[in-house]
Design brief:
The protein has 293 residues and is of the alpha+beta class. The protein has helices at residues 46-54, 82-98, 107-111, 126-196, 204-217, 221-238, 245-265, 269-289; strands spanning 7-15, 18-27, 32-37, 60-70, 74-80, 117-123. Helices cover 60% and strands 17% of the residues. Its cofactor is a divalent metal cation.
Length: 293
């Protein structure tokens, strides 16, 4: 089933008075690119969260947001950097002796010095937190995939309609070809008559030769055949139950190539108009394919 690369999932799991929130967003990207924004105290679970995503999707830029609300599952601990304090005291006394200063070094003075104290978090319920976070992550990832599948279904229907429309333009081009040849023939005959002021019957063979040369120069049979083949491949790939975005993108590029060649060969106004419509519709197909996983 076709999947989109755009999706969103959100889940919250409560642990006592604490709420663990997980949000996942995904958008278009050539490869799988995962970024996380989460408290430093939870970074030890970052790789596990990424593995959950990698197990569900293969392409897209994915942003994971983890926030903790309510009572912390970590105890705070204040540490004293004794080496820094010792150095401060030694240097303060050096300054006092060097400049013959008076006064005592107070606790108030020391407490205001930089890097004397540091705050640390001590895990108290890491297993409980880990299970809560992974549960929220799994639920959010499930929602993300469901949304990508839903949008993928809508993409599938839209692409089917657009390919059908493109096929109709292709049929019109194919039907126009023999008419163009007849118009070439009539145009040449008219020009000859204008120059000679009389009907030319003995030069019918030469007229046909000229028509054949023009028809060969503007013949787009091969391009139309290849385009038809590309459309068949495109529709076949749409039904494959695996990531197909890159393959579809390649086929659309080939479609563009063939249509551009038809446009360069055509010297018929109506065919040129059809080619413009065809290119416009294929461009819309390309835009939609950019969002397919």
């Amino acid at each position: 089933m076709l999947k989109s690369m755009t999706g969103y999932g959100k889940s919250t799991v409560e642990v006592g008075e604490t709420k663990v929130h997980v949000e996942i967003r995904s958008v278009n990207h050539r490869f799988l690119d995962i970024t996380t924004k989460m408290p430093r105290s939870l970074l030890f679970l970052e790789d596990r969260l990424k593995q959950v995503v990698k197990g569900r999707i293969s392409r897209g830029r994915v942003d994971i947001f983890v926030t903790i609300e309510g009572e912390e599952l970590f105890e705070k601990k204040i540490d004293v950097n004794w080496e820094i304090v010792d150095q401060y005291l030694v240097r303060l006394k050096d300054i006092q002796r060097r400049y013959d200063l008076t006064g005592d070094i107070s606790i108030d003075m020391v407490s205001k010095l930089d890097h004397v104290f540091s705050e640390k978090e001590i895990e108290t319920d890491s297993d409980e937190l880990k299970m809560a976070l992974l549960e929220a992550m799994d639920d959010a990832a499930t929602q993300l995939v469901e949304m990508r599948m839903k949008e993928g279904h809508e993409l599938y229907e839209d692409l089917e309609k657009r390919i059908a429309k493109v096929r109709s333009w292709l049929s019109s081009l194919d039907e126009r070809r023999p008419m163009v040849i007849e118009e070439y023939k009539e145009r040449i005959r008219t020009r000859v008559e204008e120059y000679t002021k009389e009907q030319i019957r003995t030069d019918e063979t030469k007229i046909l030769q000229e028509v054949a040369l023009l028809a060969e120069k503007g013949d787009v049979t091969e391009e139309l055949t290849r385009l038809q083949s590309h459309f068949i491949q495109f529709e076949d790939i749409l039904s494959i139950d695996e990531p197909v975005g890159r393959r579809l993108d390649f086929i659309v590029q080939e479609m563009h190539r063939e249509v551009n060649t038809i446009g360069s060969k055509s010297n018929d106004g109506k065919m040129t108009e059809m080619v413009v419509n065809l290119k416009s519709e294929i461009e819309k197909v390309k835009e939609q394919v950019q969002n397919v996983e």
